[in-house]
Amino acid sequence: MAKKKEMTKSKSASVYKVIELVGISSVSWADAAKNAIASASKSLRDLRVAEVSKLDVKIGKGGELVYRAKMSLSFKYHGE
Fold first, then answer.
1. How far apart (Å, rounded) are the C-alpha atoms in residues 78 and 80?
2. Residue 27, CB half-sphere, CA atoms under 13 Å: how many?
3. pLDDT averaged over the chain?
4. Cβ neighbours of residue 12 under 8 Å, at least 6 residues apart?
5. Nearest residue to 53 (alpha-carbon basis) of 26, 74, 77, 76
6. 45 C-beta neighbours (distance < 10 Å), count
7. Total-model pTM
8. CA 71, CA 59: separation in Å to the nearest integer?
9. How many Å apart are CA 65 and CA 72, to the nearest integer?
10. How high is the pLDDT of residue 13?
11. Separation of alpha carbons 58 and 69, rounded Å
């Protein structure tokens, strides 16, 4: 019985929130993802998992490329 209470307690101990971000870079998709995470880490605590859902590249008039990485980012929710 004590084991069941312990499992219930640990399951409810953490809640995570998921947001969607788009990172950009003129270097690469990996750099775009890194930029998004770096920006998010300035205002969010306990970042957990970033899952990239879409990669694309925008082509400028002069042929310059802008890499974009769309991702879901989860972080631990601490309440308000």
1. 7
2. 7
3. 88
4. none
5. 74
6. 9
7. 0.76
8. 20
9. 23
10. 75
11. 11
